[in-house]
Amino acid sequence: MSKREGSLDAPTRHPVAWREAEYYAEAPLQDELERVFGICHGCRRCVNLCNAFPTLFDLVDEGKTGEVDGVEKRDFWKVVDQCYLCDVCFMTKCPYVPPHPWNVDFPHLMLRAKAVKFRKREVRLRDRILTNTDAIGKLAAIPVIAQTVNAANRNGVARAALQTALGVDKRRELPPYAPARFRRTVQLQAQWPVRDGERTSGKVAIFSTCYVNYNEPGIGHDLAAVLAHNRIPAVMAKHEACCGMPKLELGDFSGVERLKEQNIPALAELAAAGYAILAPVPSCALMFKQELPLLFPDDAPVRAVAQAMFDPFEYFVLRNRDGLLETDFKQPLGKVAYHIPCHSRVQNVGQKTREMLQLVPGTEVVTVERCAGHDGTWGVKQEHFEQSMRIGRPVFRRMAEVRPDCISSDCPIAARHIQQGIRDGGADLQAEKVHPLTLLRRAYGL
């Protein structure tokens, strides 16, 4: 195949045409599903990534013809429901992504199907509720209510009731809610002297994310402590709402747009002022870096925010390469079993967390680069719990067998999922679950 046909070109993604009426037309959607499913059936390289592809291949193999034309069109939705838009198939596996003439973008096709389903109001009230992360967080993180919610999440009777009411699996360990929100308690140093030879942006703004703000504010405080130790000026955005990833995964583009309108003005103002914007949850960084620019390709402020958005460890490694990061580590970290989440992998910045932690003397980092199977709200749902644990089983096994001192993942939800999987699998492992930012703060002796 010639370079003109795309085999030697880097993968590229087309903007999502979600404002066009044709995008929601079911007949063209069904035709495209059949076309792409036929290509996937003939390739099958992605069979081990998630449950969407095994579901597809089983439908084909059990069909009348052994090909996609033997699958009932209504069964295509079974494949759509198994995709949680991690993007790994596009970024790491598929040889037919654009600019290849076959133009396969499996995640964006699944997104289109989810959007059609959402527009037809064929989503559960449960799913609409779970994607309102700000509303849930603002209520559940009220001090007295937080204690009540946390106690209920540990109570078998209450969890059974929650499963009946909302379909949240009673076996899933849920993250706690913090009675003191990160944005209300963080203390940042907004001014430090400029260093000679400063090339990396010398000041940052923190986009705390719903999870850090309402569930684990300690992660944000660890980030703030590391920034202060490195004398990097830091501020918070004036206003912050959910990044929109949960709404995107539901196919709710209008919900994504509403959240974009809340977030982008304040973040674009920071970007214009020269701030690097750090989001300590990979899904949120990915939303601003890649997803919003594809949804709003003509929006200049969106593009400006995308260029200013960084994963914290991506930023720290850049600072270190400029000779501007403190490396006065005082505490070894021992053996760290580190899981790199899918939404970190598809940012295409490399394993910056591993690279940073390996700078700490007396530290061994064993990286597991495979989907853990949780993905936001997908893994908490009763209909997906067993599948999420099965997908994560190779990760659980690998991280346990290296006998680490701690297990860690940039995605705190994935880390909790991995910890549960290791324990439920019967492994005799006492390793501590620690976020990489907490590890870095610990290494500095802060």
TrEMBL record:
Keywords: 4Fe-4S, Iron, Iron-sulfur, Metal-binding, Repeat. The keyword Ubl conjugation does not apply. The keyword Iron applies. It comes from the Bacteria. SUPFAM superfamilies: 4Fe-4S ferredoxins (SSF54862). InterPro entries: Cys_rich_dom. Residues 204-289, 336-412 form the Cysteine-rich domain. This is Fe-S oxidoreductase. It comes from Aromatoleum bremense.
